[in-house]
Q: What sequence folds into this?
DNA sequence: CGCCTATTTGATCTGATTCAAACAATGTGG
DNA sequence: CCACATTGTTTGAATCAGATCAAATAGGCG
């Protein structure tokens, strides 16, 4: 289905990542989407910032704010979400250690949504100025981050398809496939299992369904022996079956070695 | 609700735009999202490309292809869509004259979705090489296009909220608000009316609902005197009412003069 | 243990789909 | 200019996926 990206180091849990320099996690992630020179890696490695710890369910950046730093998830789990007037919430993305969820803040002044934690997390804040200087000195990195934001957009599109045209069963299966892929890439997976501290309500907020229906749909996925999901951990028992249930084709993740490349000058 | 962007020229219909150089339409559009110098405008103006005409319902770029040029809509109407195995379609965006719907092709090799016409359209293809050279010589333009792709992503997020958490009535109202805004910005609106050659089935594919339900929801919007929609043209009779029905807040469009700015060096 | 939060179950309701058919508008060829 | 084919809109009725409501159960933890 997809080419396996080589893992350079593995941190089994979301919290374990804390023993690794978050910049290395970021470099690792960027390498899954495009090639980098050693010079560029060193430049990334020397980015300075302030690290801050968050408890679960705290906002890292809030709608309406004008951030002056990008944030890099070092440990934990974060998500991107909006809340409607009636209190309904839509989660639009999950972010694991190594991802930089608000690159957009570099070019869009005001946040149009929130980024919050779903578990105790540590976040490294790197000033916008440092990032812009980085892009000036290493245009290739600018293109790589641009590519990264384009891939995020591709993921949004895939979610739109799910929300608009897939039924609950298929939508949830698809989401779990995607999450496991991202965990694999981040080195947070072992034997098709990973830590996933999400409640069923949160899965509902991501898939646009009610908690009760998430519960029933999970039961169906379990009954068909596709997954195990309990105590904050997800195991995919039948990858082919789940891929089939969710019509999951990872092409939209635009991983390296799948026909995609970053132009370089 | 939002600052009015000054219109420099107006082409009343989607086809009329044909009498204007598509590069001017693009410049106009880019100016609604960020400032440009005269030098940059001249550089955009001198981009060379090949123009091609499409009939309605033809694909401009197809899933799986590796485009080597970006496309700029000169006249007509295009959309971005995916089709599932069972034939269900999800439209993910609409594109009016002046927009460059596949900037992503510059950095993502393989298309993960289709871009097709919804009306007879003319499209200018500008080679990737020309665009990359442009960004090298004018980094400010690179940032502006980057910003443009980030705004697209913000629009996807807003659609996700609609698809996941809004009911049919609100979702459709929101979409019509957005479309009218985009038409306004493109100079394709007069007195809250614009050409909109969409069938109810297409509105359904964009909002994730069935044709029948689109029909009934439109009737409700009409019954409440919010809109008129027939014969390929949309009129918003009660803007405040429609904004209210759709909980529409244009902040997510990140227009100029609404607190957003593009960093420049 | 007792509190709080998350999961599970059952019953009921409803927004939206599906199916089917009528109707309207537009275009096409004879 | 009409017959008729095609495509889009509208209406009605039946059905269903998923939401809502309500309550029981199960974990986790100070």
A:
């Amino acid at each position: 289905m997809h080419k396996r990206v080589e893992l350079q180091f593995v941190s089994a849990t979301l919290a374990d990542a804390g023993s690794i320099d978050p910049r290395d996690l970021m470099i690792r992630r960027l390498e899954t989407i495009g090639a980098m020179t050693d010079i560029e890696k060193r430049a990334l490695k020397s980015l300075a910032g302030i690290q801050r710890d968050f408890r679960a369910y705290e906002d890292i950046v809030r709608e309406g704010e004008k951030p002056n730093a990008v944030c890099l998830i070092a440990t934990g789990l974060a998500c991107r979400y909006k809340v409607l007037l009636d209190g309904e919430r839509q989660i639009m993305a999950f972010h694991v250690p190594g991802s930089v969820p608000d690159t957009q803040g570099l070019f869009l002044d005001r946040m149009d949504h929130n980024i919050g934690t779903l578990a105790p997390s540590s976040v490294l804040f790197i000033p916008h100025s440092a990032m812009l200087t980085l892009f000036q000195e290493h245009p290739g990195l600018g293109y790589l981050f641009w590519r990264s934001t384009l891939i995020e957009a591709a993921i949004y599109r895939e979610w739109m398809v799910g929300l608009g045209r897939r039924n609950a069963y298929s939508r949830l299966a698809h989401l779990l496939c995607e999450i496991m892929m991202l965990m694999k890439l981040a080195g947070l997976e072992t034997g098709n299992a990973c830590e996933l501290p999400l409640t069923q309500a949160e899965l509902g907020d991501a898939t646009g369904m009610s908690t009760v229906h998430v519960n029933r749909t999970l039961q169906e996925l379990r009954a068909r022996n596709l997954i195990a999901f309990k105590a904050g951990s997800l195991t995919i028992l039948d990858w082919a079956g789940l891929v089939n249930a969710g019509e999951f084709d990872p092409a939209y993740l635009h991983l390296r070695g799948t026909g995609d490349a970053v132009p370089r000058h």
Notes: Chain B has eight helices and eleven strands. Chain B touches chain A through 54 residues (CB under 8 Å).
